[in-house]
Design a protein that fits this description.
Layout (H helix, E strand, L loop, with lengths): L6 H13 L9 H10 L18 H13 L6 H7 L13 E4 L6 E2 L6 E5 L4 E4 L2 E4 L8 E4 L4 E2 L4 H36 L1 E2 L2 E2 L4 H30 L4 H27 L10 H13 L4 H11 L8
Parallel strand pairs: 1-3
Antiparallel strand pairs: 2-6, 3-4, 4-7, 5-6, 8-9
Length: 308
């Protein structure tokens, strides 16, 4: 059995990587969204008959990972992966934010044209979001100004939307973690102490190797979860939870290694690393925490008895 990605899936990933060049240095939400739209990604899951690309989550997982690598300041997961399960094709294409964990705190305040807030039993379209403080300034948060209109969405679609959000966040965490390690490697090659590159020190090598290994081991879990979600496999819930738990841990390890290699300047807004660090920390808690997803996996494996 061949588990490799198809030439078309790889070409779409490569095309997006080329389109996103330069956005690492200058995060521009309008430009980022324009380039995603040029490739049709906001309607990629929409059937071709309805004006979309007719793709599935497996086709998109590499692209979503790329948007993590670039730490894009736009709602990729919510718009491209989640909203298609909740809205009609005619309502798709514009930036959207979605929250399905029961919280009234939604990301992308001021950027999203559509805000859907609810849980896995019901969701409402809210008119606007009041901005609140966010750890990641490029992923602004907000609370609804009014309850909004309840949408006619069945439980099956809400479950698929939830899994899509978990999967997409895991894929972005893998991309974010990989790029954080790359930035740290670039830094320790250039910085010198005692007349040699800092990267030549064994302790630095081990830290970065641990971060790299963690991210690389998380990536196959994300790809497997994308297959399960795209094919409707009975293990999809377990698989996306496993991917999110592992990707969150791996990205956190990569972020810690990158920050320790950069030192205090890694925290500063003057250095670009902070964009990857704050996004990792924000996404570790988004769409379910690592502890919550590990519990899902444990229940699926029979390690925790179901509640009576």
């Amino acid at each position: 059995m061949d588990f490799s990605f198809t030439p078309d899936q790889l070409a779409l990933r490569d095309g997006l990587r080329e389109a996103l060049k330069g956005l690492d240095d200058a995060p521009d939400a309008a430009l980022a969204w324009s380039r995603l739209s040029d490739l049709g990604l906001p309607v990629a899951l929409v059937p071709e008959a309805d004006g979309g690309l007719g793709l599935d989550e497996l086709d998109l997982v590499l692209c979503v990972e790329e948007t993590g690598r670039a730490a894009l300041p736009v709602p990729v997961v919510e718009t491209c992966l989640v909203a298609p399960h909740l809205l009609t094709p005619a309502a798709l294409g514009e930036p959207a934010t979605v929250v399905l964990d029961g919280s009234d705190l939604a990301p992308w305040a001021g950027l999203a044209r559509t805000a859907l807030v609810g849980d896995r039993t019901a969701v409402r379209r809210t008119p606007a979001l009041n901005p609140v403080h966010a750890v990641d300034p490029y992923r602004p948060l907000g609370r609804p100004t009014a309850p909004g209109e309840r949408l006619d969405v069945d439980r099956g679609a809400l479950d698929k939307g939830w899994r899509a959000g978990v999967l997409g966040t895991a894929a972005q965490l893998v991309g974010l973690g990989a790029r954080a390690v790359e930035l740290a490697v670039e830094h320790v090659r250039e910085r010198h102490q005692f007349g040699v590159p800092v990267g030549s020190f064994q302790a630095v090598k081990h830290q970065l190797a641990d971060g790299y290994r963690a991210v690389e081991l998380a990536r196959p879990l994300v790809h497997a979860a994308a297959w399960a979600q795209a094919t409707g496999a009975p293990t999809a819930e377990r698989d996306v939870s496993a991917a999110k738990a592992r990707a969150g841990t791996a990205a956190g390890l990569a972020a810690r290694a990158a920050l320790q290699c950069h030192g205090a300047m890694g925290y500063t807004r003057e250095h670009p690393l902070h964009r990857w660090l704050t996004r990792i920390w924000a996404l570790q808690a988004a769409w379910g925490t690592g502890a919550e997803h590990r519990e899902v996996v444990a229940r699926a494996l029979g390690l925790i008895e179901e509640d009576a």
